[in-house]
Description:
This protein is mainly β. The chain has one domain. It contains 1 helix and 13 strands, in the order E-E-E-E-E-E-E-E-E-E-E-E-E-H. Strands 3, 4, 7, 8, 9, 10, 11 and 12 form an 8-stranded antiparallel beta sheet that branches. Strands 1-5-6-2-13 form a 5-stranded mixed beta sheet, with no helix packed on it. A hairpin with a 6-residue loop joins strand 5 and strand 6 (80-85). The longest helix is centred in the last third of the chain and has 17 residues, at 201-217. It is globular, with a radius of gyration of 18 Å.
Amino acid sequence: MKRATLPLAFVTLASCGDPMLPADFTGPPAAAVTGNVVPGANGAVEASHPRMSLEWLDTMNVSLVGQSLSYQRSEKLQTDWDIGLNLPKETAKFSRPVGARSVRIGVGKIVYFDDRDGNDKVDWSCSDASCDRVMSISAQFVLYVERPPYCQSFGGAPAKPRLAAGYHYYSYEGGFLRQLGPADPMSFTLIDRAPVDSDPIAELQAFAQALLNVWSSNPTTGC
């Protein structure tokens, strides 16, 4: 059965549904995205203290930088979420050379978790019964562009950015990158795992490298 979905556009997060706001969230969000939620292999799972964060890759320390998100159930489907994103922290962004210029970006994944210790963040090294529980991690990736890659210019034409500054969303499967369109939701399969068994650092590193490879080796892609 095909689900109805909301566009990747700004949504009002104070409307109907169950608001779930972390203690350190300050709005309004800079961007918003829809999440499509499906049960996992063991059926639906519930969080006692539901929270959501955007976990950015900190390339300097090879770690994750968590940033609280606001979210609520969609007005259209109780199995979908409307998610608000704030601008990333400075430690979430990194610079890399691409051609004669450099880009400055952040890459992350959205994490839905049970905040058992009440501190609004995930300790990814935790493995015992007192840990927060990771209930779901987005299948897709979040890209924040501060300084974009540029298309190769020809015949004296001015160079132009391949991507606008701001938020973008990608799938990365089988070595192929695909940017989500305006009607594509992010997908969340509900699980229930210890943080240490769910760490997305390796996936984020692979995604970031794939993006940089495409931008470096295909100077006209997206132009």
